Every structure is written in C-alpha cells, then in structure tokens.
User: Which sequence fits this backbone?
C-alpha cells in the first residue's frame, strides 16, 4: 500500500464534506469554481486509472471516495448556478 499517497488523499478528502455542506446550506456558487472542480475530477480519474492499470492497491478506494465527493460538489454547483439564474429572472 502507498502509505503517503493514502495520507495525501485522506487530507484532501477531509475538506470535501465541509465544502458539500456549505454548497447545500448556502445554495450559492460564491467562492467556488466549476473549472477547478472539473480539474480535480480529471485528476482523481487519472489516479483511479493509474491504480487500476499499474499499481492496484486499497488506495484506489480513497480516490473513488474523493471523486464521489468532488463530483457531488460539482453537481451542487450546477444546481446552485441554475437557482441563481432563475432568481435573477424573477
């Protein structure tokens, strides 16, 4: 197992539940960038593919967990952006 890689993913992953909570509560895209979230998603997909094809170990599941959390935050960003645009029209 890649211990240091696991620590890195745990540290990165620790922030996402708070970010998701903030997106749900605020119903706003302020302070968030969809492009940034998409770059992170791409990075996690690359990490997952690397684990599958070259270095399969349990750390793969940390990549998947982080990918799910970032994807959730990205979907919330899209939902919140749609709400913001609807509110401007009203």
Assistant:
């Amino acid at each position: 197992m890649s211990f240091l890689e696991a620590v890195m993913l745990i540290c990165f992953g620790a922030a996402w539940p708070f970010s998701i909570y903030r997106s749900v509560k605020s119903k706003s895209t302020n302070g968030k960038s969809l492009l940034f979230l998409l770059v992170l998603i791409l990075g996690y997909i690359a990490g997952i593919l690397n684990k599958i094809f070259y270095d399969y170990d349990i750390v793969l599941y940390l990549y998947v967990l982080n990918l799910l959390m970032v994807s959730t935050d990205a979907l919330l960003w899209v939902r919140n952006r749609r709400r913001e645009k609807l509110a401007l029209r009203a």
